[in-house]
Structure formats: structure tokens, C-alpha cells
Amino acid sequence: MAATEDGGTAAVVVEAASSDRFQQLLQQPGRSLVVVHFWAPWAPQCVQMNSVMAELAREHPRVTFVKLEAEAVPEVSEKYEITSVPTFLFFKNSQKIDRLDGAHAPELTKKVQRHATSSSVPAGSNDGAKEDLNVRLKKLISAAPCMLFMKGTPQEPRCGFSRQIVEILNKHNIVFSSFDIFSDEEVRQGLKTYSSWPTYPQLYVAGELIGGLDIVKELEASGELDTICPKAQKLEDRLKELINKASVILFMKGNKQVAKCGFSKQIIEILNNTGYGGIFQPLMHPFLQK
User: Fold this and answer.
1) Whether pTM exceeds 0.90
2) What's the chain's average pLDDT?
3) Is the CB of residue 40 less than 8 Å from the CB of residue 4?
4) Are 77 and 71 in contact (CB under 8 A)?
């Protein structure tokens, strides 16, 4: 904090030019919040977010705001997996509690406000919190037969490894659900410990860890991937199954009781009049099922 003419203090954003200085700044008393901006001078969005940080520093004098040039202190950037700028990390008691990737001023403001006003964690509550997280992680990895924990989404992967594993799964017509680890810092950090696997992406089948990109590539090369992961039913097989569900199958709009088009109504009448009414099975037109 810098002194002002009236004897008060003016909030500033402190610069961490070295790993040692960074560690010093994390040593705040009690549960004081430290917000660190990993930035680069060549990125205009970072310069803009430095201005946002300065404004937040004025609004939250009890919070320590730090800017760290990501490329100038690579050992810190690598430790916290900083792969793009701007990235913001939130610390209490020297422990990382949250993360924000990208130049999202409203979200940064919300996170600062939430963590700055959060109460201290009662003594002895860590074990209970860890147990709750493990229960949540177990539910997440079992949320679908095949679960991919990745950076970003299948539509917009946010790292090359995640993009490659999505491409492999799609190429093999594998049905999977995904979880964006950037959306929840607690899950992102907790799953590394839970699975004893320190990197992402992570692929789970039937609640069991398969591995990351390298393992998936090995399984693909050996042909095992197709036997391990659940695959989407081919359209040809699905249609064959449908048309063989009964001796007479009618693909129609609506059902026997309520036909939703004149043609469907007429064909039902014909089938009823010719003695097939009691044995044919209608399959509703998929666009009119609701």
C-alpha cells in the first residue's frame, strides 16, 4: 500500500518479479485473500485486466492484488499450469482456492467479492470437506458410462491434448459425456489427488480411470479402445432393430389413438379394416413425440 497526502493509504497492485517475491506475497496473515494476475505485456487484454485489478484494489483494501509476468517467472507459471494469459489465481493461507482463465472482468469481480467476504474455515473441518469432495468426485466420474474430464468442451477444447482425445473418441463413434475442469477449481485440483493422475484430460469408463491421452492412443493402436468404451449404435443397426420389433411396423406421426396427420390416420383405418389393427405396432415420428 502506498501513502497518500492525507496520511492514508492508496491501494496498489503489487508486482511479483521473482519466485521468492511471489512466495512472500502469499504469506498473508490469517485468511487474507491474495489475487494473482498472470499476465503478459504484449497482450492488450492483460493490460486491460490490470486496470480492472487496480480498481478492485481500491474497492477491497484488505485484499492483496498481485501481477506476475507469466513468461518472466516461468517456474511459478509451470507450477500452477498457466497455459494462457490472462489467468487469475486466488489464494488463502498460501493455498490456491480458485482460478479464472480469460479476460472476464465481471466474473473476476464476483470471485473477489465472494472470497473476500467468505468466513474462515472452522478448525477440524478439513476432513469433512475432503470427504464431501470425494463423494462428489465419485458421483461425477460415474455420471455416465464414459466420462471425459477435459479443458474446455468437446465443441471448444481449450488445450491440444483435450482436442486430440475428443477427436479419437469421435472417430471411434464412442458415446461419452464430459466435464470442463476450468468450470470448477475444486474438482480440477481434487480429481488429481483422487485419481493419483496429475494431468488432464482424464478418461473414465464405468467409474474407473482409463488414463490420459497417451493411454488412449495406446488403446487405439492395440484395438482395445473399441472394446473398452461404449459405442453409439450405428444408424443401420438401429433401423434394423426397429423394423424387426413386430411382424408389422408402422412409422407414423402420432399413435394409434391420436394420429397427428391425415395420412397416418388413413393408413391406421386401412390396417384396422383389413384385420391388421390388432397386431401392428406404431412408431411415432421422432419430431412429433413431444
Assistant:
1) no
2) 82
3) no
4) yes
